[in-house]
Amino acid sequence: MSLRPAWLTFRRYAAATTGMTLTLFALGVYTAATGSGLACQAQWPLCSDQLIPALTINPDFIEWFHRVWAMVTGFLILGVAGWSWLGSLDRRTRIAATLAVVILPVQIAVGAITVTIGGLVPGGYTVSTHAAHLIVALGIFTLLGLATMWGGDRPGSARLLRVALGVAVGGILASAVFSRAVPLLTYSPGGQAAFYIAGLSAHLGLVATLVVATEAKEGAVSGLGSSTARTVRRLATGSMAALVVTLLLGRDLVLYTATWQRANLVALALALALAAGAAWVLRGADTAAGRSTPVGGD
């Protein structure tokens, strides 16, 4: 007899873990943007010689809360990998979940270096460690998204592809509102966190688009031709690459001059144009399919 409630499926558990990771991403950005990553007297895992600092909104608490959320999320990621091997899941799901766990220690180590392990690593809070921290986190987030999408028996569909592209386009548009490339709002710590929530949601939508489009190309999705699926996949891949550039430039990885701002704006516009192009191609295919459907009785 299983102790697991019937509603708790692998896909739901993996989706919740992916959501926790997305929140962790935003918390990490907020922590760095407020300078709280330098709190706790540069100690890790202790915080200002305490296991639990004063529970008031201050730099020590923000950094400590980020660490606690990261620890809980880490255990959930371990659970995704364990479930993928113990359950009757396919090989690709197990590989994605296992790789997320394999690179998790790298993320933990880079995070520890970023806040400097007991002051033993000079220059731990630098551009290079921020970049590494972001890239490794994005890798884990992507792998968890793949495990979620692959970890079930529900087949892909043209409708799911439309939803995924809608999330991608909407997420890119929302990220533009908070992006430092578009000076609509002050790029405050809260704005930076919102930018990454929107941008990562768009990234996940593009990952889902690639998954469903690949299945369609292989003939596993009904109602979508292989040629259309191939075009959608290429456009989504280009959009994802441009979006990753904007995510990297959203942090203080370069001296953000007017030139870098223009480069960021170009990358953001390209990501949006390619994602919208993929949605347009899919819409055109749906329209063509509707016109080709014979009327009953003809």
From TrEMBL:
Entry keyword set: Iron, Membrane, Metal-binding, Oxidoreductase, Transmembrane, Transmembrane helix
Positions of transmembrane segments: 21-44, 64-86, 98-125, 131-151, 163-182, 194-214, 235-257, 263-282
InterPro entries: COX15/CtaA_HemeA_synthase (IPR050450)
GO molecular function, one term: metal ion binding
Protein name: Cytochrome c oxidase assembly protein subunit 15
Organism: Halorubrum aquaticum
